[in-house]
Specification:
By secondary structure, this protein is α/β, with parallel strands linked by helices. The protein is 43% helix and 10% strand. The chain has a four-stranded parallel sheet, covered by helices on one side.
């Protein structure tokens, strides 16, 4: 995908390019090599450290792309020229025990940070929230039409043993 990113963004020296999902820093490094000024963000502190190591010419910040406007303001950047949002996960994020994997049994943290910004983990939601609260969350955030049925199944399952 590197060649496609370079071809489609065609960054030029002096342009401000945002890599909104830095990951391991591969795209960040490639974009910085063009002479563009690269600002990279990632919600995962471990990814930020790796991206900074792999792309030392870029500014790498631990932040979710949802807060891009605040980050730009803080960095005193009034306008960007180009942006890349690579919205996939990398294998490391699915195997580091952060609770995103379907392939292994691990705590349901579901956060890049050691402590979720919400203040609670997915495991806590499934094991302690009321059936109504779980259903409302599934419907409100996921527009899940079977939210009530799914919430009922979670509550029935956790009565046997914690999820």
């Amino acid at each position: 995908m590197a060649a496609e990113v370079l071809r489609l963004l065609a960054p030029k020296k002096g342009e401000i390019v945002v890599d909104a999902t830095a990951g391991q820093g591969g795209h960040t490094k490639m974009l910085a090599k063009t002479g563009a000024e690269v600002l990279a963000l990632d919600a995962d502190p471990e990814a930020v450290a790796l991206a900074q190591k792999n792309a030392p010419k870029a500014r790498v910040i631990n932040a979710n792309f949802a807060s891009l406007e605040q980050v730009l303001h803080h960095e005193k950047i009034a306008k960007i020229d180009k942006a890349l949002f690579d919205l996939g996960w990398n294998r490391g994020q699915l195997t580091q025990g952060k609770g995103f994997s379907f392939l292994q049994d691990e705590p349901l943290n579901m956060s890049y940070a050691p402590t979720p910004l919400s203040g609670f983990t997915a495991g806590e939601v499934l094991n302690s929230w009321s059936e109504k609260a779980i259903a409302d969350m599934l419907y409100g955030y996921g527009e899940e039409r079977y939210a009530r049925k799914i919430a009922r199944a979670f509550v029935a399952r956790r009565e046997q043993k914690p999820i």
